[in-house]
Design a protein that fits this description.
911 residues; mainly beta; 22-stranded antiparallel β-barrel; five-stranded mixed beta sheet
């Protein structure tokens, strides 16, 4: 180059990296409904294209010094193609940053489409400032240019440790601004033509460390290579996806990556729900979700939009879904839209992911509790598959560590397995969806999943010397289909499914074997009528048939009269019971934007048919959001919610009550959320819920046909109230160099249970059961009430593959009815002692507190990654009481402690 140089901005050489675009803000009203969003993750179906570039002003001082630069920017492109925000990833200086930002703000793009709908996205853009030689002087003839010899470098970019293909990366030789460059495609492939000789390869990719190597290229020859790029900061992307559109006042969304490393969860993402605001702590063996003062069984658990009977394996085991199969976990503590029903508490929805689009991937995990695997792979273009399975073996290992002498130790341990299999049809993950001649887009999948749980008694002594048996089993299978159709402003999601459930238990003289068959379907249709109005409607139907074979002692005073002084043992009843039930719903809701307000009114009509019983319930709901500022939003909701009683409860007397109706609840909430920075968010929400017509047991005394009095096993006399405030402050990682993340959640709440009338003869507790006195007091503390619930979660990347995290939990103790023993009460008819108690729920158990710690160490190889972890629950061995029981005379209370310090060591290999 001559000493007199002419400056120009090399706009043509700018790199627009479009393979990792991210939703930048809430999509417009035409976005797919919530069910479609969880089953089909947002996909860029049309990337933005630069249609109107603007040349930057070269900084004068940099021009005078002959400086060049490449400014890497994160551009937010609005849904109309305009540039709404530009941020540099790293400062370059010398005026280059300001000049590039000023020019890029004037760019125009063709609108990007997410799932066929114009949507805002974020892209990474590199603006190169270069210097060129001036044109020849007037009358000067340039030397004849000869065609330069060429060499070709081609190959594939692969993520080191996982074999994933790296798309959208820039490949070039050296730092020369005039050097040609290439961008890798969706399969990570690139082709670069350069002069022969030594090529100082530089590969720049979002979310990966700078890759540099040297290749000797020969004239007129093609060199083919594979470059393995190391993820930066544990594969954290520098372009961060924003939250999916919110249609509820509160929705806690947890990604698989952050949840798997939450301490105390054993790498199980679903367990992280227990650390979120609004969730009370249930006894460690129950696995129940107690949300905003609701009782057990009142929070719906779903997987890919289909209801499942249990979310966790028995005795507080892991979730019934392999962690690697989970795409996203949505938790709605309340205030959810009319598309969701059959719950008067909260809703938990687990979304699975489709198989990989590039090549075979998988993982194998082994620890002291269980072992499992996960595989995903493309089959052909448009078809991918993912599968996972897991099996526990603690029931086999534990006897080897128990003392061998007879009767020294008896333990009840779980034995479980689960599986998931999903086949997807349509576009590959992350690829644009194919369109037919009519402009419509279709995608779908078929999925099968299931779980089996058994409880087994193990002992260190010989089995023949054991006089205790326990046989409990819970089994379910589900097969579902999903077809998503989009055309213009119309979105349709159809989800049919079938299921099988089995449950059995045997303890002493009581035995029960139950089988249930389920057939159901959902149809959700959304239509964008205008930019300010979107309407969704649909059907949600399910039919189930349940049958039971039962064997148990006849109820006292129903088939026999107890003989004074003898134990109450009557005739053993053997019954076969069968019943079918239908529950359907029609829902309608709309999103209406009025200035800074967004209103989502909705209504859900419910119909239940069981035998001769017909129940109807109407649930109007309203959600409102006000965008006060760019970073602050106010939100509120109110509505009615219905939950049908389980079908088996409608069997005839004395086992059931055919006159049950829908359980109901009124839910309301009001909150504010503020984004202090791009990574620090605070959410405060207050709530008030009132439950009525809930199932309470025992029921009232009724007269039988033909004479006689019998007590109903349960009835709709249950009522309840809950109010409180929830706080969550969460700090995400800002970039690959940000080392720590975490959150603090706190809930203050008050939960009451009661009955809509006097206590039934024979006692009975408030709401879902328990023991109380015979007063006519309407409300009492719920047995699940916990006034204060505090959780602190933090994680820190130490570097070199090491990561450490901790979780501290504190909850107020649950209410209890104290033993008030002043004398022995002996009952001669049944020949036993009865305890005497003080006022109902007038005491509390000790508060629960626990510290969990997790340490991970990853070893990254070329094609796979090995992770070793130590997850320690209850690090300082706190003795937390889980249960209280009395001696046979009711004289003393004994506390049953929970889990002591429990270290779990495991290995996980992934490729």
């Amino acid at each position: 180059m001559s000493s007199t140089l002419k400056a120009r901005s090399a706009l043509a050489a700018a790199s627009l990296l479009l393979t990792t675009p991210a939703l930048a803000q809430e999509p417009q009203a035409g976005a797919p409904p919530a069910e479609a969003a969880q089953a089909h993750q947002p996909t860029i179906t049309k990337p933005p294209e630069l249609v109107q570039p603007v040349e930057a002003q070269y900084p004068p001082e940099a021009l005078a010094q002959g400086l060049t630069a490449s400014v890497r920017l994160i551009i937010t492109i609005a849904e109309d193609g305009a540039v709404s925000d530009v941020q540099p990833t790293e400062a370059v200086g010398n005026g280059f940053d300001e000049a590039a930002i000023a020019a890029v703000r004037q760019f125009r793009f063709s609108p990007a489409e997410v799932d066929g709908v114009p949507s805002p996205v974020q892209v990474e853009y590199v603006y190169h400032f270069t210097l060129n030689a001036p044109p020849p002087a007037e009358g000067e003839t340039p030397a004849a240019e000869q065609e330069a010899p060429k060499a070709t470098l081609t190959g594939q970019l692969i993520s080191r440790g996982s074999r994933s293909r790296v798309a959208g990366a820039t490949v070039r030789c050296g730092d020369d601004p005039e050097a040609p460059e290439a961008t890798s495609d969706a399969e990570g492939r690139f082709t670069l033509e350069v002069p022969p000789g030594e090529c100082a390869v530089r590969v720049v990719a979002s979310g990966y460390q700078l890759y540099q190597t040297k290749e000797l290229l020969k004239e007129n020859e093609t060199t083919e290579v594979n470059f393995y790029l190391a993820p930066s900061g544990g594969a954290l992307e520098t372009v961060v996806r924003s939250e999916r559109p919110k249609k509820e006042v509160v929705r806690r969304t947890i990604t698989r990556e952050e949840a798997q490393k939450t301490p105390g969860t054993f790498g199980d993402p679903i367990r992280v729900i227990q650390a979120l605001p609004g969730v009370a702590r249930a006894p460690f063996i129950s696995g129940e979700l107690l949300v905003r003062g609701s009782n057990p069984g009142q929070t719906a658990t779903m997987m890919d939009g289909v209801s499942i009977p249990i979310l966790f394996h028995l005795l507080g085991g892991p979730s019934v879904v392999n962690a690697e199969f989970i795409d996203q976990l949505d938790f709605y503590p309340g205030g959810y839209g009319s598309q969701y029903g059959r719950a008067v508490g909260g809703v938990v929805e687990v979304g699975t992911r489709k198989g990989a689009a590039d090549t075979l991937h998988g993982s194998v995990k082994v620890d002291v509790l269980d072992a499992g695997f996960f595989l995903e792979a493309p089959i052909t273009d448009g078809i991918s598959v993912a599968a996972a399975a897991r099996r526990s073996y603690i029931d086999t290992l534990l006897p080897a560590f128990l003392p061998k002498n007879e009767g020294s130790t008896l333990s009840v341990v779980p034995k479980y397995w689960d599986y998931q299999l999903r086949v997807d049809f349509g576009a590959k993950r992350g690829a644009p969806t194919e369109t037919d001649a009519g402009g419509a887009r279709s995608s779908g999948y078929v999925m099968a999943f299931g779980s089996d749980d058994q409880l087994r008694v193990v002992s260190g002594g010989p089995k023949t010397e054991r006089d205790l048996s326990l046989d409990t089993r819970t089994l379910f299978h589900r097969v579902k289909g999903d077809w998503t159709y989009r055309k213009g402003a119309l979105t349709s999601v159809f989800t049919p499914y079938v299921g099988y459930d089995g449950i059995s238990f045997a303890f002493g003289a009581a035995k029960q074997d139950g089988v249930g068959y389920t057939v159901g379907a959902r149809e959700v249709v959304g239509m964008e009528l205008s930019p300010a109005l979107t309407v969704r409607t649909g059907l949600d139907m399910v039919y189930e048939h349940q049958s039971y074979d039962v064997q148990f002692p006849a109820p006292e005073d129903f088939e026999y009269v107890a003989f004074p002084g003898a134990e109450s043992v009557g005739e053993v009843l053997v019954e076969h019971l069968a019943l079918g039930g239908f529950d359907g719903a029609l829902f309608l809701e709309a999103d209406m934007k009025v200035g800074k307000f967004t209103f989502t009114p909705g209504v859900r009509g419910n119909l239940q048919l069981v035998g001769d019983t017909q129940n109807i319930a109407l649930d109007p709901r309203l959600w409102v959001r006000f965008a006060a500022t760019e970073r602050t939003s106010l939100k509120g909701s109110l509505g009615l919610y219905s939950q049908p009683p389980e079908t088996f409860r409608f069997i005839s007397l004395p086992y059931g009550n055919p006159d049950l109706i829908y359980q109901r609840a009124f839910q309301s909430s009001l909150g504010v959320e503020h984004r202090f920075t791009d990574v620090l968010n605070v959410d405060v929400t207050g709530f008030f819920n009132r439950r009525f017509k809930n199932i309470a047991l025992p029921g009232q005394l009724v007269e039988r046909e033909g004479g006689g009095i019998v007590q109903l096993p349960y009835s709709n006399d249950g009522i309840g109230q809950a109010w409180g405030i929830e706080l969550m402050a969460k700090k995400d990682r800002a970039s690959a160099t940000d080392k720590w993340s975490g959150w603090i959640s706190y809930t203050f709440s008050r939960a009451l249970d009661g009955r809509a009338g006097p206590m039934p003869d024979g006692g009975g507790g408030f709401g879902g059961g328990g023991f109380g006195d015979n007063s006519d007091e309407t409300y009492g503390l719920s047995p699940w009430d916990q006034t204060h619930i505090l959780t602190l979660v933090g994680s820190y990347i130490l570097g070199n593959g090491w990561e450490v995290g901790g979780r501290f939990r504190y909850t107020t103790g649950r209410p209890s009815t104290p033993l008030d023993h002043q004398y022995d009460v002996y009952q001669s008819d049944p020949n036993n002692y009865s305890p005497t108690f003080g006022p109902y729920a007038s005491a509390r158990s000790s508060g629960f507190h626990q510290l969990d710690v997790r340490v991970d160490k990853s070893f990254q190889f070329q094609n796979w990654t090995l992770t070793a972890y130590l997850d320690v629950q209850n690090l300082y061995n706190a003795e937390n009481a889980e249960f209280v029981f009395n001696d046979y005379r009711g004289r003393r209370e004994y506390e049953v402690p929970g889990i002591p310090i429990l270290p779990v060591v495991g290995l996980k290999g992934s490729f």
